[in-house]
Design a protein that fits this description.
By secondary structure, the protein is α+β, with helices and mostly antiparallel strands. The chain contains two helices and seven strands, in the order E-E-E-E-H-E-E-E-H.
């Protein structure tokens, strides 16, 4: 079984980061995650992330630099979760694949029930945040 490449955006605004809760009927329903989606054939990572954030949240972003990659084995599949820092000027967000969003303080990320693959990224963000203080 192959590995699925998934991109996620770390969107930080006013010292808070965007997380989204998966709809209950979806796989990992109820878990919080950094928004993004699956890489399609022929796309660059940056193109994929910009497309997914536009489709899922109606959010236009500027994809900046790679942050961290995590390989996680779920019950039925393995994903390679590739995170990038992103910037946006958009204020309005529309929910398509999620039922809720929150802007949270980076040090508080682990207080949320994050999808397992997202946890190491949150831990690295918290560590980076501490080092920048």
């Amino acid at each position: 079984m192959g590995m699925t490449k998934v991109l996620c955006g770390l969107i930080i605004k006013d010292q808070q980061i965007l997380i989204c809760r998966r709809k209950p009927e979806k796989s990992l329903g109820g878990y919080w995650e950094f928004p993004g989606g699956k890489l399609e054939e022929g796309e660059t990572y940056e193109e994929c992330l910009a497309r997914e954030l536009q489709e899922e949240l109606d959010l236009r972003v500027t994809v900046k630099n790679h942050f961290k990659t995590v390989i996680h084995q779920y019950d039925l599949k393995t994903i390679e979760l590739i995170s990038y820092r992103c910037e946006t000027e958009d204020a309005e967000i529309k929910l398509v694949d999620h039922d809720q969003i929150e802007w949270v303080e980076v040090p508080d990320l682990l207080k949320w029930t994050l999808a397992p693959a997202d946890v190491p990224i949150a831990e690295a963000l918290i560590e980076t945040y501490k080092l920048s203080k």
